[in-house]
Amino acid sequence: MAYPYKPYRYLRDVEDAQLVDLITQQIEETLQSNSLGQMQVCRCQGQHAGMAALRFLPWDSRIFRKKMARVEHLIAVGTYGQKLDILDGLISRLVVECENNGVEHVSARVDASDLPCIHALEQNGFRVMDVLVTYYLDLSLSPATKMGYTCTIREQTPDDIETVVSLAREAFHGYLGRFHTDPHLHNDRCDELYAEWVRNSCLRTAADYVAVAELAEQIVGFATFAQHKHINTVTGTCLVEPVLIAVSPVGRGRNVYTSFVAHGIQWAQRVCSPTTSTGLFIKTQIGNIAVQRAWCNLGLRPAASHVTLHKSLRKEGE
Questions:
Q1: 107 and 34 in one domain?
Q2: Which of 155, 154, 109, 168 lies closest to 133, judged by CA?
Q3: Which domain holds residue 193?
Q4: Using CA atoms, how far apart are residues 87 and 30, in angstroms rounded to an integer?
Q5: How far is 113 from 277, CA to CA, in rounded Å?
Q6: Do 106 and 141 share a structural domain?
Q7: Domains held by the chain: number
Q8: How far apart are CA 265 and CA 256, in angstroms?
Q9: What mean pLDDT is predicted for residues 132-160?
Q10: What are the φ/ψ torsions at residue 105 (nearest 5 degrees)?
Q11: What is the mean pLDDT of the chain?
Q12: Residue 2 — very low, low, confident or very high, per pLDDT cuts 50/70/90?
């Protein structure tokens, strides 16, 4: 497959064919996800030259009280101009499908190096909402830098849920991620998204593990973690991700955040088989320099970057 922007291509000892299998699996899951799941394909001289898929987002739609979807698997081959023309046509057809199905908001996340894809989305009215950078640590190759915790970190229990959700509401209020940045999404709904996301994580429906940090027996932060088992199945790499981390004002300036990342590294080493290649990746906005410095101190290094774009399909005045 000539497509150069395959996901997780930074994983060591993973062959190109395995990444193609992973993309194929993801496409099949998108198409089977719901009634809106569909794909557009472009053929040139009898060969596949491009494709794009559409996924309905029921959870997001409920939170924001509008029908939302995401464009996925934007792939094209050829020169820059050929890719731009192919992707422009595919995206425009998917936007029409969204309009025909009552979708009011559509998003896409693409590799930051895939300029034809970014430009094709912009030509179809999408606007950049954030740029994410991914850092990665191969724990099979280079163990993490050891550090002592500056707080007590333990697994979250059912008794902690309301405290953790309350902390999430405070920490993510007005947070400048892709949701709060979008003028077509109400800020109170954006706040609620993070609160419900964290609640679901505490119930283990949106996370595999949640940890809390305590200072003087008071919870001052939380972190949610995911183990990407589907990636392990296809590539043989046990991959763990810290997803949401928040620290209260009381805990800031005391290395609580760094302790959470270090704890996640230790958790990855516990849940992954010692005979399996193990890695941890984590994402943030490209302008969040402070946390990137903390990651570097723990041995993580930049591995990938992505651009998130949104398009509102609501007419003015609606």
A1: yes
A2: 109
A3: 137-305
A4: 19
A5: 27
A6: no
A7: 2
A8: 14
A9: 86
A10: -150, 135
A11: 92
A12: confident
Q: CA 27: distance to chain centroid?
A: 17
Question: Is 252 within a domain?
Answer: yes
Residues 88 and 169 in one domain: no
User: Is 315's pLDDT higher than 70?
Assistant: no
Residue 5 lies in a domain: no
- Asked if residue 161 and residue 101 are part of one domain, the reply reads no
The whole-number pLDDT of residue 317 equals 47
CA 291 to chain centroid, in Å, comes to 17
Contact indicator for 21, 234 with CB cutoff of 8 Å: yes
Q: Report if residue 131 sits inside a domain.
A: no
- Whether the pLDDT of residue 273 is over 90: the answer is no
**Res 153 pLDDT > 80:** yes
Same-domain check for residues 99 and 233: no
Q: Is residue 42 within 8 Å of residue 90, measured between CB atoms?
A: yes
pTM score of the predicted model: 0.92
Examine residue 68 and state whether it is found in any structural domain, yes or no: yes
Q: Which residues of 227-266 are buried (b: 16+ CB within 10 A; e: fewer)?
A: bbeebbebbebbbbbbbbbbbbeebeebbbbbbbbbbbbe
Say which CATH number the domain at 217 has.
3.40.630.30
Which residues face 111 on adjacent strands? Answer: 306
Q: Do 200 and 119 belong together in one domain?
A: no
Give yes or no: residues 47 and 180 share one domain: no
Mean pLDDT of the 161-165 span = 98
Q: Over the stretch 122-132, which tens digit does the pLDDT of each residue have?
A: 999 999 999 99
Work out the pLDDT band at 203, boundaries 50, 70, 90. Answer: very high
Per-residue model confidence as pLDDT tens digits over 44-61: 766 778 999 999 999 999
52 lies in the same domain as 195: no
Which of 104, 125, 146 is a domain's end point? 125
Our separate counts of H helices and E strands in the chain read: 10, 11
